[in-house]
Amino acid sequence: MSEFVIAPPAIPAVPVAGGGLFPVRRIFCVGRNYAAHTREMGGDPNREPPFFFTKPADAIALGDSVPFPSATQNLHHEMELVVALGAGGRDIPSDAALAHIYGYAAGVDLTRRDLQDEAKSLRRPWDMSKGFDLSAPISLIVPAAQIGHPAAGRISLAVNGEQRQNGDLSDMIWPVADIISFLSSLVELKPGDLIYTGTPDGVGQIQPGDRVYGVIDGVGELEFTLA
């Protein structure tokens, strides 16, 4: 007999290339990790310590259709490399960080930019601009055992066939190993954690009915329509 007073929620999971499911524990996101994007958002691209925000695990969005969210008139796309952790720890050294990675995926951080701008102006948290339902579309996770640890390669996104974002993973201010190391100094990382590692410049507005296509060379691609 279960001790839970209500039925426990399902475990969010992402399909893995080749079969199986990756259970998602938490979603961490890195803000302003590409210099050009930092500039377009009005920030200073100097290599300051990274900062993070989170999305709920069930913000993961899979499949060909993603619902357009409520309460926004300015939804933006942000194309990102996603890191899936197979091992956790505290205070992980950068030179040991890559060993903690299970695999990689292509993802999009959907952002209610109008709500984010309002929160910034009022010095309030970003939660409702970033962590809303199905705000984290993601591709299949590809094991690092198959593709290694990509440190360079094209990351791009197109809307209705028109290219919007086109960068390179090598343009990250903080590479993946440093992100893991710094984040593990703030929280104890766990297997099942996902890290969205930041977006190149070219973020912009998307509307209901738009077709979004993102690709990261050597990692994967995802495509969805805003329903």
From TrEMBL:
GO MF entry, a single one: metal ion binding
Keywords: Hydrolase, Metal-binding
Pfam family, one: FAA_hydrolase
Ranges of residues in domain Fumarylacetoacetase-like C-terminal: 27-226
Family annotation (InterPro entries): Fumarylacetoacetase-like_C, Fumarylacetoacetase_C_sf
Presence of keyword Hydrolase: yes
UniProt keyword Hydrolase, yes or no: yes
Xref: PANTHER family: ACYLPYRUVASE, FLUTATHIONE S-TRANSFERASE
Name assigned to this protein: Fumarylacetoacetate (FAA) hydrolase
Organism of origin: Acidiphilium cryptum (strain JF-5)
